Amino acid sequence: MRRCRQPAAVPVAVLAAVALMVTSCAGSGKDQATTAPTGPSTAATSPSGQHGAAGDESHEHDGAGHQHGASGGGLTPVQDGFRLATQQTPTAAGRQSELSFRISGPSGAPQTRFEEVHEKLMHVFVVRQDLSDFHHIHPTMAPDGTWSVPLTLRRPGPYRLVTDFVAVDDQNQPHPLVLGTDFELAGPYSPEPLPTPTREASVGGYAVHVDGDLVAGQTSMMAVRIIQGGAPVTDMKPYLGAMAHVAAFHEGDLEVVHMHPQEASSDGASPSDLMVHADFPVAGLYRMYIQFQTGDQLTTAPITVAVR
């Protein structure tokens, strides 16, 4: 089992912005589709008919709904008495199959009470070990606590399954958790080298530029600017309750940081200028996936950044 570190943070003095947008990274575009106005997350009802955290007991969020104090970092399948166990994983590359898993609570019974965060009860990331493939998907839960979702992985090799959720215990207390486990898709594995760190890229007609001093163990703001045709993008829409979702994976152990921008200001600033809390736990290279929506198009932009 991998050692679980407590998430640290990273200062990110950011003014410029990012330039990279891939319309669909390893099929991610079709994996997500829900859009809704930005706002606070709400207590949600699980398929079993039980409500999430009661009253004012919900966990703390910043202006964008970023979870503070979530435990696990995707490094371990067990945290605070909650356990992730896979039921079924894909078996053949290039073929749609079912991914299913279950979360059990401290008593060992299936966990069926969850709080909705960013319009979903469960966020799932699936990444290849070399970080060349990325999926952000949202399974549905059966009454017995089994989560399932169709998934197509295009290449064999080792993968990490990461579940990001808020479980609600018998005392109506929320537990923000990020649990992860590994699985293998049979076949020859030829890892791709991680792309060289850069602060800018251009893909799919979008330009993204990232600037700032990224330092592990501190928290600062990272500005992300999205440009098209030399001008700031003006048709961005909220995606899953935020103007963007950022998932950054540490090279090697694949520890994940899930971040969101602050709510848009009312000072007339372009909606393409996104201010993101940057919380990198350790130094090294990170493969960062930025997801945003323009019109009806979801774009996933990968970029490699170096954190000192």
> What value does the Rg take, in angstroms?
18 Å
User: In which range does the helix fraction lie?
Assistant: under 10%
SSE series? HEEEEEEEEEEEEEEEEEEE
Number of helices: 1
CATH architecture assignment name of the largest domain: Sandwich
Q: Let me know the average pLDDT.
A: 78
Report the top-level CATH class of the largest domain: Mainly Beta
Shape: globular
Order of adjacent strands in the largest pleated sheet:
1-2-3-7-6
Please, how many domains? 2
CATH superfamily of the largest domain: Immunoglobulins
- Ends distance: 26 Å
Largest sheet: 5 strands, antiparallel
Strand content: 35-45%
CATH fold node name of the largest domain = Immunoglobulin-like
Kindly state the number of beta strands: 19
Supply the helix-strand structural class.
Answer: mainly beta
Which blocks of ≥5 consecutive residues have pLDDT under 50? 1-68, 265-269
Task: Walk me through the structure.
With 308 residues, the protein is an all-beta fold. The chain has one helix spanning 28-31, and strands at 78-79, 82-88, 97-104, 123-128, 134-137, 140-141, 146-151, 157-168, 174-185, 200-203, 206-209, 220-228, 231-232, 236-237, 245-250, 256-259, 273-278, 284-294, 297-307. It folds into two domains: 35-185, Immunoglobulin-like (Sandwich); 200-307, Domain of unknown function DUF4426 (Immunoglobulin-like), CATH 2.60.40.3340. Strands 1-2-3-7-6 form a five-stranded antiparallel beta sheet, with no helix packed on it. Strands 10, 11, 12, 13 and 17 form a five-stranded antiparallel beta sheet that branches. A hairpin with a 2-residue loop joins strand 12 (220-228) and strand 13.
